[in-house]
Design goal:
This protein is α+β, with helices and mostly antiparallel strands and about 160 residues long. The chain has a single domain, classed as Nucleoside Triphosphate Pyrophosphohydrolase (Alpha-Beta Complex), CATH 3.90.79. About 20% of the residues lie in helices and about 25% in strands. Strands 1, 2, 3, 4, 5, 6 and 7 form a 7-stranded mixed beta sheet that branches.
Length: about 160
């Protein structure tokens, strides 16, 4: 699917869908400088991928639609309130840890103005920067796919 996105339909499993692992969302926030905003995860006991960088996101609640979950997670984690039309679907696929819906949006945010409610904070990174960061989940593959689609939307 192209980075141009898809509508609210066709986003795949919801929280009720049986399958391997949980169902989640992540939102790639891209600046006008083509940098992505990543969250620095903390090292609290029991946290997955401690002290790594990750694309903001979370898990679907019962009967929640993926786009609604993405909007809720952005509001909870960044105090960022977007319209549903601001989120474009990049892909939805099975990952090793569960089924994930990856959305993206273009937003210019000032990191210092973000209210950090989870993790250690947020920072902007270039595509090249992301290749050397300790990334959580399978975000290295997700970001490589995203930047490839961004360069060639017909792709």
């Amino acid at each position: 699917m192209s980075a141009a996105g898809a509508g609210a339909g066709g986003e795949g499993p919801t929280a009720r869908t049986p399958g391997r692992g949980s169902v989640g969302v992540q939102v790639i926030i891209l600046s006008s400088r083509d940098e992505v905003l990543l969250q620095h995860r903390d090292d609290a006991p029991g946290i997955a991928y401690p002290n790594t960088w990750a694309i903001p996101g979370g898990h679907l609640e019962q009967a929640e639609a993926p786009r609604d979950c993405a909007l809720r997670e952005l509001a909870e984690e960044l105090q960022l309130f977007l319209a549903p039309s601001d989120l474009l679907l990049l892909c939805a696929r099975q990952r090793s840890y569960g089924y994930e819906h990856t959305f993206w949006t273009r937003q210019d945010l000032v990191v210092e103005d973000l209210v950090v409610t989870e993790g250690r904070g947020f920072a902007w990174f270039t595509h090249q920067d992301t290749r050397t960061l300790p990334l959580g989940y399978e975000d290295d593959a997700v970001l490589e796919h995203f930047f490839a689609v961004l360069q060639d939307p017909s792709g």
